[in-house]
Every structure is written in C-alpha cells, then in structure tokens.
Protein 1
Amino acid sequence: MTIHAVFGSPLPDVTLRGPNVELRCFDRGDLPLIQEASADEFIPVITTVPESYSPAEGLAFIERQNFRLASGEGWSLAIVDAANQQAVGQIGLWISQLSKGRAEIGYWVAPSGRGSRAASHAVRLLSDWAFENLDVERLGLYIEPWNSASIKTAEYAGFNREALLKNWERVGGIPKDMWSYVRLRDPLGERTEAGQ
C-alpha cells in the first residue's frame, strides 16, 4: 500500500501539538525565522535555506517546503515554541523509502531557539506520529560526528547510534562521514506479521 493510498495525493497538512512544541506547515509569518537561519554558518549549507536572505528568497523557501506535500516527498514543518508561538526551526519527515518500511527525519533550529530542547521535543513528537500513522519499522537520521548538539537531540528523542557511514553525504560539495541514528517501532523485534 502506498502513502497516497492511505492519505491521498497530495499529502495532507499535518499539525502536531505537544506540551513544548507545535509542528505545522510554514507560512509568511515565519520569514523572520528564515532570515535568522540564513545568517547561520551551517544551516544554509545543509538545507535549502537561502544563503543570502531577501523576502523573495524567504517566500521561495516557504513554497519549497509546502510543495513537498504536493510532490509526495514528505512533510516539512515549522517547529514552533508552544510557550510564545514563535517558529524556531524546521523538521522534515521524508518518505521516499516508505515501501521498504523506513523513513528519515531531518531538523534544524535557528540560534535564538537553541538550548530549549525544541528540536528533541519535535523529533520525538514527529517520530511518535510516524509510527502511529505510517507503515514504517524504522526511522533514521544522519549527523556529522562533530555535531554534539544534534547527537544529544537524537538521543534525547529516543534514537540510538547505529554506525559511522563513510563519505555518506556531500555537505557544501565535500563528502562527509555521518553517524547513522535509528529509532525502531519495536526495539525488541517482537512485532509479528499480524502486527501484534
């Protein structure tokens, strides 16, 4: 069964609310977040956030994220601080490998939102939703070995380190090693064919 058979095409908007964060589609009110992220030394290198910000580039970023629903690529959602309703980052759930029982998560948080565990809360919230709503056995994410903050985020959200993947991804055009992190639907491998 394909994701479109479950959800239809395009994929539906998803809004998730937890005690600490809300995840929702991007809108024009998120332009200040995109402007801040554009000035970060790392975010534009690993994402489609523009390196040079302008309102037009910011809107183009928002359109790209929301188009991912129409393309069936997955969900790209703003991470919103539940306390002040300000967007602090982005999280994506990518489903191109769904037929193989797996999906990927990626995330970033702008400098002003760091230190609040917003990313960890977002990863856990989206992971729980994925296991409840998608036919996946495993969720993966990939982290450069130097990125200790992202490693803590993944581990706090219930992901475990699996392997070091050599030259796994090009970052800024340069092949980089990545730690593979995984969260399994059933960490003990006890799920039966009947799903019990």
Note: Strands lie at 16-17, 21-24, 74-81, 87-94, 102-109, 138-143, 160-171, 174-184.
Protein 2
Amino acid sequence: MSKQSHKPQWLEAEETDVLTLNDFPCNLIVWNDEVNTFEWVIEALIDICKQSPEQAEQCAMLIHTQGKYAVKQGSYDELKPMCDAITERGIGATVEMLTNS
C-alpha cells in the first residue's frame, strides 16, 4: 500500500489575483489657467512626461482650447509622481481613472 500525502484543507491556499486601484488605467489631466504660459506648460510636458516638443505643443494648445486635456495614460503609480511634479511647477493637474462610459 502506498502512502498518499494529504494536506489538511485549511493548508491549501488558493492563489487569486487582487485588483487594486493602481491596476486600472488612468489619465493624467492638465488643466488650463490664466497664469501659466504656453512655454512653461510645454517645458513641463517635455521634462516630466517625456513628450517631444511637437507633442507637448499640441497638448498645450488642446489644454488651452478645451480647458483640460489628458496628456498621458497609464497606471496610477506611474502617473501620480508626474502629476505631483507638474503641480509643483504651479500647473493644475489631476490623475483620473478611466471609465467605460
């Protein structure tokens, strides 16, 4: 007779993936204001978001005409430090979770 190893049921742990807020895609939103110049916003987008000068200029124009614009998409963990760096320059920015609507 062979011995079979049986684990007590309470020792059998089931692996599950846990989704957190950080796993969902988000947008980095930059807000228009009447204080910051195009050049300052463009410089921030190039330095912080690693955009090309052309891309940063287009984003700045969209921010100006639309009142806000999603300049980058990614995880919350990726975007939060960028958002903080932009706001430290006196530019309004937020991280918003994408919705399916």
Note: The chain has a mean pLDDT of 85.
